[in-house]
Each structure stands twice: as structure tokens, then as C-alpha cells.
């Protein structure tokens, strides 16, 4: 496998985001830099599946698919057998379990995940809120937020805010700096609505040093000095203890993992 390139084909009769998310989560569990993905969405006809499967067979990879139309799923299974290509039905077993357990019938309508329902508009509102209130820009928004993230610079506050906003949660974040007094609104919130983010000093030093390089600042600036980092982390720890919030060490944690922990608190 080390010397050969492989491709995973992702097929859907909608956009294909569900299948792609599962495939990419799987790839991350392996040292598979030579594996790429190809997403093909809005499949409507059986002929399309035949062409896709023949291409996959020639490339030596496998296929992951989310197809809700029975005839398309059956064609996928038939072509997989005919060509000897592994095809993974991501949604089918879940739908069958729902049918068997609850004695219900699926709508078999592609793209329901992307319909503009109340949840959709809630997510849009949450994303707009997170962008507007990022990095402590609007301290009055702290009282309107469902979650307030606090932490020193480079502890993933902004990407985490946006990720949670995509889940429909109104999130704002506040950078903690020893020289800047926290806004009074922070102390008006219950600790359960605040989440503190921290990181191991060595990891934070490495991240900040890379950040200096990226913006063209000289090495050795105070921002990336260990003494300064320890000062900031100590200050942040004391403030987090003062407001009584849960604290998450985000060192080597993916955004999704940290978000899962926070949603578990909720």
C-alpha cells in the first residue's frame, strides 16, 4: 500500500456530505496519505452507477455511498458483485434498523438533511452570532450566548465557536490577557454557561512560534516566550476558577472532540 495510490469514491443521490464525513473520519484512523477521495453527488440514474463502479474498479479503490432510492441501491450492489468492487452502504443499515424496530417506512427522498427547516435557520443565526461576537468584539453578547469560551490566545476559541455554531448553538469567545480587565458581563453569567480552554505550555509555545513565522514577526517576540505563556496560563486558570466554569485542556484534541465534550456538558 505504501507505493500505490488509492481512491475512495463517495456516491450520493444528494450532496454526499454524510458519506464523505464518515469516510474522512475513517481515513484519519490510518496513516493513509496515499488515499484520496472523490465525491459524486446528485446521482439519478442506474447508468451513472454503472459508469462510476467501472471507474472505481479500474482504480483499485472502494466505494462508499448514501442512496435512498431502492433501485439505485440495488444497482450499486449488483455492480459491486459484478466488478468485484467493495461498496459500503452507509445509510442503508440504519434505515433498515429504523424500519424493523419502529415499523415505519422511509420517505426515500434525497437531500432531506439540507431542507431549510427551523434547524437550518437556527444554524444560520448561530453562525452570524459567532462571527459578529468573535474574539470579544461585543461584550454585551456574552449575556445572549448559550456558551462563552474563554482562554488565552491560540487555544482554538474561534474555530470551536464556528463549529458549535454549525450545531445551532450561539457561542461567543473571549481572549484572556493579564493586562486587560475582563468585562463585567462575564461575572454575571453562571459558570455552567462558560467553558475555559487551556493547553500545555510546550504545545502552546510551538503553536505561537509557528504563528509568528506565518505573520512574519521575529522569533523570540514576547508573544511566543515561555515566561509570557506561563504568565497568561496562570492568569487564565485563576480567572476560570473564579467564575467556576469547567476547564478543558485542548492539547492535541481535534475541534470535534472538544466540541463533543462541551455538548456533553449541555
TrEMBL record:
Q: Looking at the record's lineage, which domain of life comes first?
A: Bacteria
A GO MF label = kinase activity
What's the catalysed reaction?
Answer: N(tele)-phospho-L-histidyl/O-phospho-L-threonyl-[pyruvate, phosphate dikinase] + phosphate + H(+) = N(tele)-phospho-L-histidyl/L-threonyl-[pyruvate, phosphate dikinase] + diphosphate; N(tele)-phospho-L-histidyl/L-threonyl-[pyruvate, phosphate dikinase] + ADP = N(tele)-phospho-L-histidyl/O-phospho-L-threonyl-[pyruvate, phosphate dikinase] + AMP + H(+)
State the top-level EC class.
transferase
Residue positions annotated to bind ADP are 151-158
Q: Keywords in UniProt for this one?
A: Kinase, Nucleotide-binding, Serine/threonine-protein kinase, Transferase
One Pfam family matching this protein:
Kinase-PPPase
Would I find NAD among this entry's keywords? no
Stored InterPro entries: Kinase-pyrophosphorylase, PPDK_reg
EC number(s) from the headed UniProt entry: 2.7.11.32, 2.7.4.27
According to its UniProt entry, the function of this protein is described as: Bifunctional serine/threonine kinase and phosphorylase involved in the regulation of the pyruvate, phosphate dikinase (PPDK) by catalyzing its phosphorylation/dephosphorylation.
What NCBIfam families does this protein's entry cite? PRK05339.1 (NF003742)
Family assignment from sequence similarity: Belongs to the pyruvate, phosphate/water dikinase regulatory protein family. PDRP subfamily.
Tell me the protein's name.
Putative pyruvate, phosphate dikinase regulatory protein
Q: Which organism is it from?
A: Paenibacillus radicis
Q: Name the lineage.
A: Bacteria, Bacillati, Bacillota, Bacilli, Bacillales
Amino acid at each position: 500500500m505504501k507505493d500505490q495510490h488509492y481512491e475512495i469514491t463517495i456516491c450520493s443521490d444528494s450532496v454526499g456530505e454524510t458519506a464523505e464525513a464518515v469516510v474522512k473520519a475513517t481515513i484519519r484512523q490510518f496513516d493513509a496519505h496515499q488515499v484520496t477521495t472523490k465525491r459524486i453527488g446528485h446521482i439519478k440514474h442506474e447508468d451513472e452507477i454503472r459508469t462510476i463502479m467501472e471507474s472505481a474498479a479500474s482504480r483499485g479503490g472502494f466505494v462508499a455511498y448514501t442512496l435512498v432510492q431502492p433501485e439505485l441501491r440495488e444497482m450499486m450492489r449488483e455492480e459491486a458483485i459484478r466488478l468485484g468492487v467493495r461498496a459500503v452502504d452507509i445509510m442503508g443499515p440504519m434505515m433498515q434498523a429504523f424500519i424493523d424496530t419502529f415499523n415505519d417506512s422511509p420517505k426515500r427522498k434525497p437531500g432531506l438533511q439540507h431542507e431549510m427547516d427551523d434547524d437550518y435557520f437556527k444554524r444560520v443565526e448561530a453562525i452570524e452570532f459567532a462571527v459578529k461576537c468573535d474574539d470579544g468584539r461585543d461584550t454585551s453578547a456574552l449575556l445572549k450566548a448559550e456558551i462563552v469560551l474563554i482562554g488565552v490566545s491560540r487555544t482554538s476559541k474561534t474555530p470551536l465557536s464556528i463549529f458549535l455554531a454549525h450545531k445551532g448553538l450561539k457561542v461567543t469567545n473571549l481572549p484572556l490577557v493579564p493586562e486587560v480587565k475582563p468585562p463585567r458581563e462575564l461575572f454575571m453569567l453562571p459558570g455552567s454557561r462558560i467553558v475555559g480552554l487551556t493547553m500545555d505550555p510546550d504545545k502552546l509555545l510551538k503553536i505561537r512560534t509557528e504563528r509568528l513565522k506565518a505573520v512574519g514577526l521575529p522569533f523570540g517576540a514576547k508573544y511566543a516566550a515561555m515566561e509570557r505563556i506561563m504568565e497568561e496560563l496562570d492568569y487564565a486558570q485563576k480567572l476560570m476558577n473564579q467564575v467556576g466554569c469547567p476547564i478543558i485542556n485542548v492539547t492535541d484534541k481535534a475541534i470535534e472532540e472538544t466540541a463533543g465534550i462541551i455538548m456533553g456538558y449541555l
